[in-house]
Write a structure and sequence with these properties.
Layout (H helix, E strand, L loop, with lengths): L1 H33 L18 H8 E5 L6 E6 L25
Antiparallel strand pairs: 1-2
Length: 102
């Protein structure tokens, strides 16, 4: 029984790592489209983002998992504190789907 659980855990971890790798790859590509690759903090040695476009992209861009194909898709810029979160409309899982990215 323990061996089966170990396999299940390892498989689950591999799937999550694969998803995270996809998000990071898409986020870095999308960062250029959004102009994040020109962010001054990438060149500021005192910044946590110094030379790390991937970290900046993951922190600033929102990605969601498609309900249908399970692939991540770009959902916009993260804007913490913007708007009233209580009034935000919740998406039904079936509405969360991949659309073509530029």
């Amino acid at each position: 029984m323990a061996a089966r659980n170990d396999w299940h855990i390892a498989n689950n971890q591999a799937q999550h790592k694969n998803l995270l790798d996809k998000v990071k790859d898409k986020a870095v590509k999308r960062a250029a489209v959004e102009g994040l690759d020109k962010e001054p903090r990438l060149k500021d040695q005192k910044s946590e983002y110094f030379g790390n476009l991937e970290k900046l992209a993951v922190d600033k861009l929102a990605y969601y998992q498609c309900h249908k194909c399970q692939d991540p898709y770009f959902g916009g810029l993260k804007q913490c504190g913007a708007g009233n979160h209580e009034e935000e409309k919740k998406e039904e899982p079936e509405q969360m789907r991949v659309e073509e990215e530029p």
